[in-house]
Amino acid sequence: MFRHAAPARLLLHVANLAVIAAILLPVVAVMIGSIQSEKALQADTRRVLPLEFTLDNFVVILTQGEQKGRIFEQATYLPDNIKKFYRAFANSLIVASSVTLLTLLFGSLSAYTVARLRFRWTLFLMQANIVSRFVPAIVLMIPLYIVIRSFGQLNSLSGVVIAETGFLLPYAILILAPYFDAIPSELEEAARIDGCTRFSAFFHIILPLATPAMAACGVIMFIVSWHELLIPLILNARPDFMTLPVVIASLVGDVFVFFNLMMAICLLALAPTVILVVLLQKYIVEGLAAGAVKG
Amino acid sequence: MRRELSAGQFALAMNVPTLLFLGAVLAFPVVYAGYLSLHKVGLAQLRRGEFPFSGWENYERVLEDPLFWIAVKNTLVFTAITVTSEIVLAVAIALLINQAGVWTSRITRFLILLPYAIPPICNGLIWSFLYNFQFGFLNRILFSTGLVQEPVNWAGNPDTALYAVTVPYIWRTLPFAIILVHAALQGIPRELYEQAAIDGANAWHRFRQITLPMLQQIIAIILILRTAFAFAVFEEILAITQGGPGDSTWVSAWYSYKISFSPPNNFGMGSASAFILALMIAAIALVYMRLVYRRVTL
User: Disulfide check for B58: which of B12, B20, B122, B268 has CB 3.0–4.6 Å away?
Assistant: First the structure.
């Protein structure tokens, strides 16, 4: 918009470099931490780059402790949860995909009616959704733990899926509603004159037009669910039902697990959502803005 | 011919799943948390399945617990620091990535969402590696660049630990704020700036008289949303300090979690403290409703 003078340009470059460095610092740390041995990390505590690189941390996680590699040769102990890596990864994938599917399905039904049909109670529902976003998870988790425990349903993936879907559904509706609101209502009015039912007008006319909205909302739901710790941490204590964040949290108190192994499992856990963010950045940016400000 | 649903019936039918989920997973637990907070609920009571009524006892015990007040104080400090830093940084960085003519700004813009992709628990562990006293990555960098001679104990020192855990939280949640400000910047009409330039206003004046007033609403939204979420911070505390050293990083959500889910598992007191946290956040939520959805036109 405005041409910058040379000193101003230099200042902007410096500011950008500072921001880029701040963004990349933890990313570089997790990468460098994951490709060295505990010994190398401890040998020279003032070195940034390791003397030697190894993939043994990843090998031991991905073979679930079968192949220990050189750096774990003498290790007599490996946490059991590390040996359940694939199980945890699959659990995370099942939970995040189910939550994404359910929130999109139920969320679009609600968001459409809230955007199109203005009743007193749909407005109230919208306000309830806004308030729900502010309810801290810890408040819900104590009663949910006690109720689910009394039904004997602790340690099941379905319990986590139900809890997370309920927790995220209001957010999904808030993201989707402005998109539906922006689709001209003449479209389904014309379809209804041609004899479409209300539902088939929604399903055949509006939903296909809302694909970008579904993409934006879906990817955000998947990311939030993939990251969720508190709900599965409290509901699922048994290793077979842990999701990745729970497995990672279980390593925090383990004095025998050193940073090299932790950084490797973190890198494996953050890779899927980083890939999603890189590929679908445009949709996420739109969705985040739509969910916070009325359309 | 099949009878067509009326608009009201159709709306209700479309919302059945949502209402069920909101009722089961949000409304009922909140009410039940209130019930639990007025009863004696420990492991023994859970096993028997009977919760004796105890009146306001849980609330009294929570309010008399010095640790609860330390947690509240830490939560307030944590929230004040993270929210003010995020707003200042979000406005500055959003303006920075808005400079389409500067090639480094385009790189920043591409990378800006990266922290949003990192799971909070991983973020916490990565920063706990960065901060580590003996083997930490941050000290390694400072040694190599000659900035320090002795290792710095970032998160292990009770005087600095609370400040140390604000940085990872800000790092992870800043992209959300930047995106909102950046989106709002696109809505400011160019003519305003052009007119101001003709009138001879310099960059600072244009920022003060045009940009900042136009960003007022989005800044208020970010302020409220981030305050409410920072009140409930959990993962970074779990991964980096677990409340320590001593009680210097106990925050409200951590207090409710520890009281409930570590021995002696006092779920009644946990519910009471969580309820107090929810009430504090509810007050913030009300302001948000008033501000943003005053006229619920959607």
Answer: B268
